[in-house]
Specification:
Shape: globular
Number of helices: 0
Number of strands: 11
Largest sheet: 7 strands, mixed
Length: 126
């Protein structure tokens, strides 16, 4: 079982930046592909970004390309994935979820993932 925990959310003005972090309870997190999804009020869950287990491949939703960057840091038995969010817009306001799967690629469908965090609120004011 892998426990996934997000941190780093909050309130920011439009045009600002936030960095979300995703940590896992198990060392073997380093062999897991990681994704970020988000859900805005009244809307469906949508894919945001994904990174392969090696960090060598990333994928982004068109709505965040050029503004968001996903990366991972696996060292000293501590496994963390970051989502750097720049040039934030009010439409980026949502609960953001980190998710993991033991797989070799990047995955963009929520059904591909096995482990989900509780979610963290990101609010962008206009």
């Amino acid at each position: 079982q892998v426990q996934v925990v997000e941190s780093g959310g909050g309130l920011v003005q439009a045009g600002g930046s936030l960095r979300l972090s995703c940590a896992a309870s198990r060392r073997t997190f380093s062999s897991y592909a990681i994704g970020w999804f988000r859900q805005a009020p009244g809307k469906e869950l949508e894919f945001v970004a994904a990174i392969s287990w090696s960090g060598g491949t990333t994928d982004y939703a068109d709505s965040v390309k050029g503004r968001f960057t996903i990366s991972r840091h696996d060292a000293n038995a501590k496994n963390t994935v970051f989502l750097q969010m720049n040039s934030l817009k009010p439409e980026d306001t949502a609960v953001y979820y980190c998710t993991a799967v033991d797989g070799s690629y990047t995955y963009t469908e929520q059904g591909d993932y096995d482990y989900w965090g509780q979610g963290i609120q990101v609010t962008v004011s206009s």
